[in-house]
């Protein structure tokens, strides 16, 4: 007995209980092993260690008891005590394949992939036990990242020699490894080289291909299933719906839905959420809602799926309304629910609603959840409260790549380039690898600061260092950077030589720069080019007309107006809104429908009178209406953002900042006026237009008059 105790690796505090005469304990080792397995599956450390103690004091857990020790290794590995498991393993004089498998699985589950490979090498070098298909599958599963792919290839080569590659278990692991390592050709090669295809194998490769974005290959596998008349199961349908959602292929989605309805597969919550997601991703939120309404039982996964379908299609209010209904049915939210809700609030710039939901999520126990924190940063940043976003970021105990990106892009969107780059430096110091989105935010920050040299360094060197392929967004940021610094010819030459197909947004970026820097000849050429790409782009017509007006080429202004009339192109009405208390007040240009419009108009008149001595002159050249100058000045005076700001000054406390959201780009005249209004009223005024946030304070704007 004493000898057995010296071999223990756990405390003996549970042994007295087990040794009491009235203690109820399983009578046979088999019962104990079953209970130990249950403890492992439920991760119940206390019960498992109690059983271990009992095995020790009854001399059933000596190193020669292979079955019992294997069960203990399996238990400790699954309750995150892999070092204890390894100690037990090392003291075994004789091991079987289960011993190796249990320990390797433990290291795999705990994220020690290198340990798994070392154990496989030890197993082969010892030669006492030969690896089987399960051992190889575990080893291959540990190679599912770029850093371990060579070891994975070596395992694959060994498999080909031993013949284990024909086992479905092994083949599925190989497909998963190559897919996760983005080596899709090898994944498909493994798939095609094995002639036997069962539903498990089909589901494995299809799910991996869809998860890793290999949609064309996923479609090929799905078609193969149809041609070979393989019977689909629940997992197949979920994978097929996910593929349709990723492809945004409604026609195929309808076909899969029809196939499922005629099958004997149960449409449970798992399948239903996949159907709802598919219709949402295909732009059919009402069809998603129809599926949802037809369900008798609806859990939080289904509620969240249908909310997400509305959010994905820009129906933010509908998503928030569904949350209220879910609450009425006493369904508790999860982290995915709150992520959808916060992102919906971001879409509406509804800071108050988002703040209330923030409190709700904290009380529900999600204060330190990474996904919820990421959505909160995005919500506060897009709702104009960048300081609240920064506080959420600072308070987060754990961060992932999305967290860092949300904060970097949030600062960039607010024109706070220095802060964005400081966060980027902290990100690199934390050894988090930047990705495509990260560099979009970083290059945008360089643009705000006019850091041309740094921008090109990030584009040509740092992105290459981190294996990020530059895309359209990155090249557009460089165009914006060169344009902001007045290097229009360099921007034009860059666009001619960059290896990318430019879109309208990039060309409009250069066009706007021509307008700001008064390079009207290049501006006219760019405008004509943009209109060839998009003949109905009202923003380009407006900028082109403004260029002609600045040049006093009134024939050009008339020509643009005629083109717009002939094409029946109308400028989208400007709409601005401001939250006062619990109410959102919406204003349009020359709005006379608001209950307090008289008071608001009077406030605008007072403000314009206050800023004229500071040099404000209405920019009547920007008005496209064919009217007298006096009437043009009137039109400019009552643009929607001016009305919303005036109303905020009337209704908000004197120390409160003012946040106004506008659906279009703020015009030159309003920008000049608001900049001066912030000075004469000593107020912080934040305007979020279609492009970015403008922070006006003391007569200055965060965009430095370039937007």
UniProtKB/TrEMBL annotation:
PPR repeats: 96-130, 198-232, 299-333, 400-434, 435-470, 537-571
Gene Ontology MF: a single term: RNA binding
Keywords: Repeat
SUPFAM superfamilies, alphabetized: TPR-like
Entry annotated with the keyword Repeat: yes
Name of the molecule in the record: Pentatricopeptide repeat-containing protein At5g39680
Family statement: Belongs to the PPR family. PCMP-H subfamily.
Leader peptide range in chain numbering: none
UniProt-listed GO biological process terms: RNA modification
PANTHER family: DYW DOMAIN-CONTAINING PROTEIN, PENTATRICOPEPTIDE REPEAT-CONTAINING PROTEIN
Species of origin: Populus euphratica (Euphrates poplar)
Domain DYW: start-end pairs: 615-707
InterPro entries, A to Z: DYW_dom, E_motif, PPR_At4g14850-like_plant, PPR_rpt, TPR-like_helical_dom_sf
């Amino acid at each position: 007995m004493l000898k057995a105790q010296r071999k223990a690796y756990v405390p003996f505090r549970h042994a007295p209980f087990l040794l009491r005469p009235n203690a109820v304990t399983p009578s046979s080792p088999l019962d104990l092993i079953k209970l130990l397995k249950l403890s492992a599956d439920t991760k119940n450390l206390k019960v498992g260690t109690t059983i271990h103690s009992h095995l020790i004091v009854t001399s059933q857990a000596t190193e020669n008891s292979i079955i019992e020790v294997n069960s203990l290794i399996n238990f400790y590995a699954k309750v995150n005590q892999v070092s204890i498991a390894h100690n037990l393993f090392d003291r075994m004089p004789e091991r079987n394949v289960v011993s190796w498998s249990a320990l390797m699985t433990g290291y795999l589950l705990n994220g020690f992939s290198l340990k798994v490979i070392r154990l496989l090498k030890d197993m082969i070098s010892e030669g006492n036990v030969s690896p089987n298909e399960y051992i190889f599958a575990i080893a291959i599963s540990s190679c599912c990242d770029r850093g371990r792919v060579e070891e994975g290839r070596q395992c694959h080569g060994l498999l080909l020699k031993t013949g284990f590659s024909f086992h479905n278990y092994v083949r599925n692991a190989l497909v998963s490894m190559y897919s996760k390592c983005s080596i899709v050709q090898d994944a498909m090669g493994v798939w095609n080289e094995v002639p036997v295809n069962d539903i498990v194998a089909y589901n494995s490769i299809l799910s991996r291909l869809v998860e890793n974005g290999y949609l064309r290959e996923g479609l090929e596998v799905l078609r193969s299933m149809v041609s070979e008349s393989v019977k689909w199961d629940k997992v197949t349908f979920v994978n097929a719906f996910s593929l349709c959602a990723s492809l945004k292929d409604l026609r195929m989605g309808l076909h899969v839905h029809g196939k499922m309805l005629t099958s004997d597969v149960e449409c449970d919550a798992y399948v239903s959420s996949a159907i709802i997601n598919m219709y949402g991703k295909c732009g059919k939120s009402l069809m998603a809602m129809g599926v949802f309404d037809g369900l008798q039982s609806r859990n939080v996964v289904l509620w969240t799926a249908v909310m997400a379908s509305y959010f994905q299609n820009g129906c933010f209010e509908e998503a928030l309304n569904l949350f209220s209904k879910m609450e009425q049915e006493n369904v508790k939210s999860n982290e995915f629910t709150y992520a959808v809700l916060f992102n919906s609030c971001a879409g509406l710039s509804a800071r108050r609603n988002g703040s209330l939901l923030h409190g709700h999520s904290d009380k529900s126990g999600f204060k330190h959840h990474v996904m919820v924190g990421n959505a909160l940063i995005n919500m506060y940043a897009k709702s104009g409260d960048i300081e609240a976003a920064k506080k959420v970021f600072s308070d987060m105990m754990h961060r992932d790549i999305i967290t860092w990106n949300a904060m970097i892009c949030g600062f960039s969107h607010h024109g706070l380039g220095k802060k964005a780059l400081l966060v980027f430096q902290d990100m690199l110091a934390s050894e988090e690898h930047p990705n495509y989105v990260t560099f979009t935010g970083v290059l945008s920050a360089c643009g705000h600061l006019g850091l041309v040299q740094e921008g090109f360094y990030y584009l040509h060197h740092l992105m290459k260092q981190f294996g990020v392929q530059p895309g359209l967004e990155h090249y557009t940021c460089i165009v914006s950077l060169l344009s902001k610094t007045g290097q229009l010819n360099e921007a034009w030459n860059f666009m001619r030589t960059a290896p990318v197909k430019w879109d309208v947004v990039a060309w409009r970026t250069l066009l706007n720069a021509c307008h700001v820097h008064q390079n009207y000849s290049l501006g006219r050429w760019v405008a004509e080019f943009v209109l060839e790409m998009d003949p109905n782009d009202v923003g380009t017509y407006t900028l082109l007309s403004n260029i002609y007006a600045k040049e006093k080429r009134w024939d050009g202004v008339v020509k643009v107006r005629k083109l717009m009339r002939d094409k029946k192109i109308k400028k989208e009405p400007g709409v601005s809104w401001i939250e006062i208390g619990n109410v959102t007040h919406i204003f349009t240009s020359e709005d006379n429908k608001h209950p307090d419009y008289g008071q608001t108009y009077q406030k605008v008149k007072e403000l314009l009178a206050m800023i004229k001595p500071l040099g404000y002159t209405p920019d009547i050249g920007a008005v496209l209406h064919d009217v007298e100058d006096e009437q043009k000045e009137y039109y400019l005076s009552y643009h929607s953002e001016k009305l919303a700001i005036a109303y905020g000054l009337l209704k908000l406390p004197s120390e409160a900042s003012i946040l106004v959201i506008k659906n279009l780009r703020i015009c030159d005249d309003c920008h000049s006026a608001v900049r001066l209004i912030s000075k004469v009223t000593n107020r912080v005024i934040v305007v979020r237009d279609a492009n970015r946030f403008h922070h006006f304070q003391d007569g200055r704007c965060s965009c430095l008059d370039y937007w």
